[in-house]
Amino acid sequence: MTKALFLDRDGTLNEDYDFVHTKEQWTWCKGAVETIRWAKENNWKVIVVTNQSGVSRGLFSLEKVHELHEWVNKALEKDSAQVDDWCIAHWHPKFHDGLEQDLLEYRKPGLRYYQEMIKKYNLNASQCVVMGDKPSDLKPGLALGMRAFYIHSRFHEKNDQKWLNENNFQPYKNIGEVLEILKQTEID
């Protein structure tokens, strides 16, 4: 079975400046490139699951999001890294008139993208890791039996502290801190 990192995008891989959708807005979070490179060197799949409601809100197009992700992967190639799959949930319940309701199951904390990626790559969820800066990033992974890491971001104070405490989450400063733990405790 293949191992995988399921990563949130904004606030985990890149700094979250609200509705990041161009390369000019992209700033890597500390340790993000190194974490992806380490995963690839150790034969892990790297899957980014991201809610991008800016598309539903009419702030930018899905094509712009795809262009940004292509640029990110080209930038990562210089570091011998890449994201294997980008799962983009561009729907939002407040901007969903007339669309199929089940599309919302792709939005985190929904499980749909996670389940599809597990099947696509023949993953054992217990051999996977999920990282994110909000409870909604972590809940799908936990529900499927993944190891989860909470990344501190500007949303920390707005997050559900009760849920984080009940689930024994301590915030890591950045994805690079989590990489050091993964190197020491890689799942066998």
Average pLDDT, to the nearest integer? 92
Report how far apart the termini are: 11 Å
CATH superfamily: HAD superfamily/HAD-like
**Uncertain runs with pLDDT below 50, 5 residues or more?**
none
| Broad CATH class | Alpha Beta
Q: Structural class, from secondary structure content?
A: alpha/beta
Rg (CA only): 16 Å
Query: Given the C-alpha coordinates, what overall shape results?
Result: globular
Biggest beta-sheet profile = 5 strands, parallel
Strands across the major sheet, in which order?
3-2-1-4-5
**CATH fold-level name:** Rossmann fold
Succession of helices and strands: EHEHEHEHEHH
Name the helicity range: 25-40%
CATH second-level architecture: 3-Layer(aba) Sandwich
Tally of extended strands? 5
What is the element layout, followed by pairings?
Blueprint: E1 2-7, H1 32-41, E2 44-51, H2 62-77, E3 85-89, H3 112-121, E4 123-132, H4 135-143, E5 147-150, H5 161-166, H6 175-185
3D structure, described in words:
- By secondary structure, this protein is an alpha/beta fold.
- The protein has a single domain (2-185), classed as Rossmann fold, CATH 3.40.50.
- The chain contains six helices and five strands; from the N terminus they run βαβαβαβαβαα.
- A five-stranded parallel sheet has the order 3-2-1-4-5, sandwiched between helices.
- Helix 4 links the parallel strand 4 (123-132) and strand 5.
- Helix 1 packs parallel to helix 6 (175-185).
- The radius of gyration is 16 Å and the shape is globular.
